[in-house]
Write a structure and sequence with these properties.
This protein folds into three domains: 44 residues, no CATH class; 153 residues, Aldehyde Ferredoxin Oxidoreductase Protein, subunit A, domain 2, CATH 1.10.569.10; 205 residues, Aldehyde Ferredoxin Oxidoreductase Protein, subunit A, domain 3. 46% of the residues lie in helices and 7% in strands. It has 21 helices and nine strands. The two termini are 44 Å apart.
């Protein structure tokens, strides 16, 4: 990037993309298109960089659109989540929340917390290392961090980087985690998948299934492994193929933490069952941003009983469809966190009123969402459909907006089915299904019961295939 004109927009790949590592990224400034190997796609086309420059307007905004943009921006800046928590602590605000909920990955998801996790808290980064906030172009939230790093400065780690390259690997020094994250960025690799692969490889080594120098907390060994992975050299040639391929070669599939070949992010679903269902059914596998159900179960201001299956199929379908629609607008999904009213962030979680409210929400979630997803609701309840209306020049209601999301999600499913994937891939690793991490629990995520209901809510048959009636409803040609 430094070799390209500073004024140009740019999207580039590093050595990992050139070597077609399946979790290589596309990098633009300090922001990363991190998951599913987009960098490897560029590398496969012998494409190193895309640059753009110009002054012509790409989208003519009328006064109504500008006024809506101003109104929503002011709202986001005033909301507790997008105006206070994320700007103040960044995504690392989740470290202590997830540790307290027992869902932050620890030693390849063997546990849900570590007594040293507070060393990696967002509050600590803010108080001891923060230089300034950072973020995407024109973003009013600025959830990125720019921190002191050794004798210089650099990018502060996101929560996922802290969770997978820090807590998961037994590394509890913020600067070290930041340096490993920066190394992945420079090489052009996803920190989530890299941390997941390293965690799995470390446990393989611990069990005698892999001969390597990897060990929990051994920073230099991890540093060398990251370099080797990007260049596909030595042990890195195996690590570069990802957790699923490594398990097929070395064993340990029951504790290989991946879904559909994609390593899981830093939310252990044994403490948020809906998120487990979301992982299992996501079209691209182990991803949290195709629904973020955990925000409504364990990491946000409300807690729809994280250890109950009631209403979770409906909740996951709603979240997945909403995300598909929002993402198609090229909106940051963090904006959707502001949908929850501000007063929800002021509720005292230990109060009787909060517990009663959450119990009522848990009971009502399934029936309410089942009804909502079948209504052709013309109301404009969110700003997303208002922006779409302004761009299209006609009114779009929430019902039409959500149907667009359902259509996208089903089209993705049909693509996967065409390419040979089946409903048998809608599952989780045995560790997450069978091994409990909570006192009194006899197992992990009770996926089977939720999955059957999920298929019915989706309008899919028992094999996970969209029915003809569903395709007609969504105007999808078979």
């Amino acid at each position: 990037q430094a070799a390209l004109p500073a004024s140009f927009g740019k999207a580039v790949i590093g050595p990992a993309g050139e070597n077609r590592v399946p979790f290589a990224c596309i990098v633009s400034q300090n922001r990363i298109a991190g998951r599913t190997g987009t960098g490897a796609v560029m590398g496969s086309k012998n494409l190193k960089a895309i640059i753009a420059d110009g002054s012509a307007a790409t989208f003519e905004r009328d006064e109504a659109f500008k006024e809506l943009q101003k109104e929503v921006t002011e709202f986001l800046r005033s909301h507790p989540m997008t105006g206070q928590i994320l700007p103040t602590l960044g995504t690392a605000n989740l470290v202590m929340t997830c540790a307290g909920r027992n869902i932050i990955p620890t030693r390849n998801f063997q546990k849900g917390h570590d007594r040293r996790t507070p060393e990696l808290a967002g509050e600590r980064m803010r108080d001891e290392l923060l230089i300034r906030k950072d973020g995407c172009l024109s973003c009013p939230v600025k959830c990125g961090r720019h921190i002191r790093l050794g004798k210089g400065e650099g990018k502060g780690p996101e929560f996922e980087t802290i969770g997978l390259l820090g807590n998961n690997l037994g590394i509890f020094d913020m600067q070290t985690v930041a340096e490993l994250g920066e190394l992945c960025d420079d090489l052009g690799m996803d920190t989530i998948s890299m941390g997941g692969v390293l965690g799995f490889a470390t446990e393989l080594t611990e069990r005698g299934l892999l001969n390597s120098e990897l060990a929990w907390g051994r920073v230099e060994a991890y540093h060398e492994a990251i370099e080797a992975t990007a260049r596909r050299s030595g042990l890195g040639a195996e690590l570069a193929e990802g957790t699923r391929a490594l398990a097929k070669r070395r064993g340990g599939e029951e504790f290989a933490i991946q879904v559909k070949g994609l390593e899981l992010p830093a939310y252990d679903p044994r403490g948020c069952f809906g998120q487990g269902l979301e992982y299992a059914t996501n079209n691209r596998g182990g991803c949290h941003v195709r629904g973020s159900t955990m925000f409504l179960e364990a990491t946000g201001p409300v807690s729809i009983d994280p250890h109950s299956t009631a209403g979770k199929p409906e909740l996951v379908v709603f979240q997945q469809d909403m995300n598909a629609a929002v993402s198609s607008l090229v909106f940051c999904y963090f904006a959707s966190y502001a949908v929850l009213p501000a007063f929800a962030f002021k509720l005292e979680a230990s109060s009787a009123a909060y517990r009663l409210a959450m119990a009522a929400a848990s009971r009502a979630t399934g029936p309410a969402l089942w009804l909502a997803m079948r209504m052709k609701n013309p109301a404009q309840l969110l700003w997303f459909e208002k922006f779409l209306s302004a761009a299209w020049g006609r009114r779009v209601g929430l019902g039409e907006f959500m149907r667009a999301g359902a259509r996208i999600y089903n089209l993705e499913r049909l693509y996967n089915l065409r390419e040979g994937m089946s409903g048998s891939a809608d599952t989780l690793p045995r560790r997450l299904l069978d091994e409990p991490t909570f006192p009194g629990a006899k197992a992990g995520v009770p996926l089977a019961d939720m999955l059957r209901r999920y298929y019915r809510v989706r309008g899919w048959d028992s094999e996970g295939v969209p029915t003809p009636a569903t395709l007609r409803r969504l105007a999808i040609r078979s």
